[in-house]
Amino acid sequence: MTDARGNARPNGEAPARHTPGAPCRVSLMVHGLDTAQDFYAALFGWEFRPGPRQLGPCVRALLDGREVAGIGVLAPDRQLPPAWTPSFASDDVDLSAEAVRSCGGTVGVGPLDAADAGRLAMASDPCGAVFGIRDTVALPPTAVPGRPGTPVWNELTTYEAAGAAKFYQAVFGYEDGPPVGTGPDRVTLYLDGRPAVGVHGVGSALPRDRGPHWTTYFTVADVDAAVDRVRRLGGRILEPARDGDRGRVATVTDPEGARFALVPAGH
Questions:
Q1: What would the pLDDT profile of 126-167 be if each residue is shown by its tens digit?
Q2: Which CDD domains does the record match to this protein (predicted)?
Q3: Burial environment of residue 178 by CB neighbours within 10 A (0 to 12, 13 to 18, 19 or more)
Q4: Which residues in 139-165 are b (16+ Cβ under 10 Å) and which e?
Q5: What percent of the chain has pLDDT over 90?
Q6: Backbone dihedral region for residue 151 (phi beyond 0: left; psi -120 to 50: alpha; all else: beta)
Q7: 14-to-3, 190, 259 alpha-carbon distances in Å
Q8: Which CATH number fits domain 151-264: 2.40.160.40, 3.40.630.30, 3.40.50.2300, 3.10.180.10?
Q9: Superfamily covering domain 10-135
Q10: Alpha-carbon distances, residue 8 vs 141, 149, 173, 196 (angstroms)
């Protein structure tokens, strides 16, 4: 499993710059920041540092001193489920936010400047799936893609794939390409000839308590062992480990119910 992250530096370092439209960060919003840190530190070996104050109580998750993800606290007056959310790179966050609005989406936060995190916005597509937009210039170096504990893929689960894909193509300039994976109503969107994100339409099978949403896939050394660790740490197993197009895959949640997927490193 590969994605369009930009041009890699020598010696396996993180890309110097993310391709506009490429998934560039993932963030988690939860109710209990300490509980989330304990869970993901034990599962992925992450360490944590304080995040930008403009974003409220939040931390940056690190591997080998490089950023992997952000974790923030949900506002108590907003009835939103804990969830992982991808952000996509943009050369002009304000212009991308305007494109979201003109294509029928909603911009819920920003665009705003968040210290060294740069300019960013939070938005949702016309069906309600939430995503972020981040300035390509201000993004700090990320952990080496594919290393256990890093995000490697993002897939949108929605009502119908083709219609949702058109929105993201209009906003971020994605190209059509052959689907990654088998099954009905799947679209893979490409950047520079490489798979960037997946879209899966499930129609009425979409969970009523979740609605359209993005799922982030994280790499682990051993999927079955990681599933056992999730269970011991208080998470839940939504889809047990199974062999598929992306290797062995499992879908799980953390103790608050934020869902994510586990895949072997190297996929």
A1: 999 999 999 987 666 666 777 899 999 999 999 999 999 999
A2: SgaA_N_like
A3: exposed
A4: beebbbbebbbbbbbbbbbbbebeebb
A5: 70
A6: beta
A7: 13, 20, 26
A8: 3.10.180.10
A9: 2,3-Dihydroxybiphenyl 1,2-Dioxygenase, domain 1 (3.10.180.10)
A10: 11, 19, 21, 15
- Tell me how far apart the alpha carbons of residues 215 and 78 are, in angstroms, rounded to a whole number: 21
Question: Token pair of 180, please?
Answer: 């990654």
Q: Which pTM value belongs to this model?
A: 0.90
Sheet holding 259-264, edge to edge: 175-177, 186-191, 194-201, 151-158, 213-220, 259-264, 247-253, 236-244
Contact call for residues 254 and 216 (beta carbons, < 8 A) = no
